[in-house]
Amino acid sequence: MDTVAWLEPFMKVVLTSAPHFWPDSTLAFFPPALRQLCSTPSLTDSKGILLKKVEDEVKKFRGKTSEGEVVQMFAEAESAAVCLCVMWRLLMDGSSVHLAFIKVAQRSQPKKLAAYMRKMVDYIIFTLPPDPTSQLNITILRLRDLVWKYKLFPVERLVLYMVLHGYEGRDAQNCLLLLQCLLVSSQELRQQTSSLVKEVPADYWSQPEWNQKHAAYLSQFPESFQPEVPGIGSPSKPPAMPMYFGNLSLRFLPVLDLVLQRLLEVPDMAAQSLETLLELYGPLYKFHDHPIALLFSTLHYYEWTLAEHPGWKKKLVATIAGANQAVHPLTWYFTAEFCEYLSSPKGESWKPQRSYYLTLVDRLVKGLQPLNSSVPTCDWRFSEFSGPLLCSLHCCLLELLALPLPGRVVAQELVEALYSKADSCQEEHLLLSWVNALGLVFSSLPESFRSALTEEILQILGNPQLIASSLPSLPGSSRPGCLLSLMHAYWHHTNVGTLASLPHWLQTVVRPMLKHEEGLLYVCHLVGPLLQRLHTEKPRVLIDIVKQVYLLLQSVDKQLEGHMQHSDIICDFLYHIKYMHIGDLAREDIDKVVSTLHMPLHVRLRFLVPTSTDLPSNPAPSQQPHRPLPAQPSSEPMQT
User: Fold this and answer.
1) HSE value, Cβ hemisphere, 13 Å, CA-based, for 541
2) Which of 57, 158, 302, 591 is geometrically suited to a Cys-Cys bond with 609, CB 3.0 to 4.6 A?
3) Is the pLDDT of residue 498 over 50?
4) What is the pTM assigned to this prediction?
């Protein structure tokens, strides 16, 4: 609720100034708080209005007798908005492109022409029949003519508008089907991309002959930025400035990212199109600026749908990361076992052994150490990462996300690998490096991975004998000690938003199952190191956690009927929280809990909420010592 409270006015301003439309298939991947604020009406309501408007404009167009009348007709803003829709309707009726539409497009400003294109894309999708198979070929042919023959708009802009519009239901499937057919059948685009991949190296910017090669490439595939009439050209078009850096293939690459991610939002279409498009355009990723970061964000964001299709993860990683093998082979990014899995035949399953996880984490630990000669290096000025530390972390995270296993299973294996390392490791600093590395890993993985940590904590809390045997040496190398250190590292690296869910977890999960004193001590060990960070960054969460600790104490005291062996340690911890962190901010809640405790605890904690009967009477003035009083811990509430 707090998140929605501060996010709502911000999103209201954004959606008011720039209205956005997202289909349900896209909103399903939004965070719950953002999804609630971004639920917007679909385009279905405007479908009938657009179709009627186009029909009216077609009738007006057919009543014009000269080119000048048509141009004058579309000079009006209301008619100009659907000029490309009218042109499309005439094309589908068998007419050719009227010269007036070319002139309207030439005279339009880029921003207005983009709006006309979006309207045309909507009209094309809305006019497709429920079963578009019979009309698909002619639609693709007309679109290819507009792009390559008349050069009315660039292909990457057309694809971008088709991907970003929020179609629902059958319209969404028709749009993606049309998009797939357009990309597969577009020989011009495929020829340009394959030629660039074949002739130009991935590090083209460092090649001394890059300018000559690029000029030859553009002479073979010239580009035009204004509409043309075949055989006539565009007499009014000014001479184009020479191009030195960009081309159609490189401009299409970021659009291809969005196409693949949009397909993942509609699994039925991804099953048909994903592998085909990767086969055709995957080699183009040798020129991508951030291939590993793209894969990590894609696998992280679409984690729950990709978990059901491990073959898609394998194909994405093998194609995108493998496109740049001339510069960095797959073994530069990943472990040898994972590279073998990527090169294995389609459909072959793989379940890594414990040794694989030990090797992977050890590789990450070495990568996080500065100036480690065993880590592959490169010229980091031209790399997507600023140094080997970030590169090692992202490659490890990507490898874990791409494994053909559920996230919870992978996380459990990582925890077991830490236990195994603790049993065999003789150097404390090396074990701490493992703990820190795994803390970084868990703080960067999706929720399905992190849930394994809470399950492991609950198992530890349900075994008081195991905790009791480890209490003298916590954190130490025992299972409770390793898990305690791992949770501290994870909470240290994670964001405050994750820590904000701790009070609810303590209330709904831990409190109902906590029945013994050892578990309470373990919880105190867990939350203790968090207090200073929460005191600074999230005081309200700190207070909520402290309240839950007191309620846990109340529950355990009730179960044990006041017979607690470690009451002094627990009371010292609670006094520390009061005098160092919260003061009297939770005085009423603490008073309610302390008043219900059995006598041993009640006596020890009576000064947390002192009353007039608990305070000693003042001595007579003549009996008061004439010396300065020692400094007392302040119980003033902290500033929130």
Assistant:
1) 23
2) 591
3) yes
4) 0.88
